[in-house]
Amino acid sequence: MLWIWIYFDKIFRGCMILELVTALKQIGETLTQGRQPFEVGHACNQPGPLHDMNLSKQDSDANSTVMCNCTLSNDGYCHITSLYLKWLSLPGKLPPEMAKLAYLEILDLSRNYISGNIPEEWASMKHLTKLFLTSNRLSGNIPGYLGRFRSLTNLSLEANQFSGTIPSQLGDLVNLTFLVLSSNQLEGTLPKTLAKLNLTHFRASDNNLSGRIPDFIGKYWRNLVRLRITDMSGPESNLSTIPPRVNYLFVNCPVLRNINLTGVIPTDVWTTDSLKMLDLTFNKMEGRIPQDAKTREFMFLSGNKLNGSVPDSFFKTDKKMYVSEMYHSDVSYNNFSLPPSCQDHQGSKHVQEFIHQE
Description:
It is a single-pass type I membrane protein. By secondary structure, the protein is of the alpha/beta class. It has helices spanning 2-32, 216-219, 246-249, 267-271, 323-326, 349-354; strands at residues 48-50, 63-69, 79-86, 106-108, 115-116, 130-132, 137-141, 154-156, 161-165, 178-180, 185-188, 201-203, 208-209, 226-230, 237-238, 253-257, 261-264, 277-279, 284-286, 298-300, 307-309, 328-330, 335-337.
């Protein structure tokens, strides 16, 4: 009877390999619109990278890589776990057949010309943890069924043409730590359901969002290391009322530009060592910058209502060079006056641009 088992096992294995190859061909036809189908061969016949899938590489950054793993299950097969098809000028759609790659963990289709929307079939990919669709031509509403991609830890939909509101179902992605929605055409407010997440990276800049900065950003997102929210119309938000502590809101590189912020910049901003960049451009911030304020590598405070004198440390370093020559800083279009130590440089175009007044 052993030979019968071996016979059917070979048939089963052959069917599995054929199904995988067929799925990859379907994926290739959908992504390339039939222009240049994948030459998949035995794409997962062995573990490790397959660096060349015979796709036309338009850019030095082009990446067509398949990663396989042969130890995921006891079935004796190698399974595709990662698929990178980046910078390849792919003109097609997102293929529903991608869901047939049942063990796929990472899918990166960034920087192509892919249009359409995200197939609902992908919600069945229970091992998918990282999905990068950055810089394509995807459009329509961000689908609510993305909330069923429960294994996702990283999701980037940046630089597409998504419109409508941010779906509340994204709050169901309890494992998500990295969420990038910048550079789309999204409207409405940030949904309160996002409070259920514990994000380390959140970017929603360059959209048409409205409303205030939600309290939950400072209250619940306690592991933030990158925060970028810009161009959000709506009522004024006093910075002092956004809870709770500066090290949660003013993380390593906070960008809170043109979102109708008012109030005084917290004292901790000028004393903390962890802050590398600060961008509060085009808000309504008031008050003075302390004379002992620490400078940052990138600091953009233009277009506010700050007053007093610009600290001498903003202009000079120990090497007697202007700070904005060594750092990227801009405090123009405020109500500043030059500090006494800068009187000798009043005629300098460099200083005039640095603290230019309206």
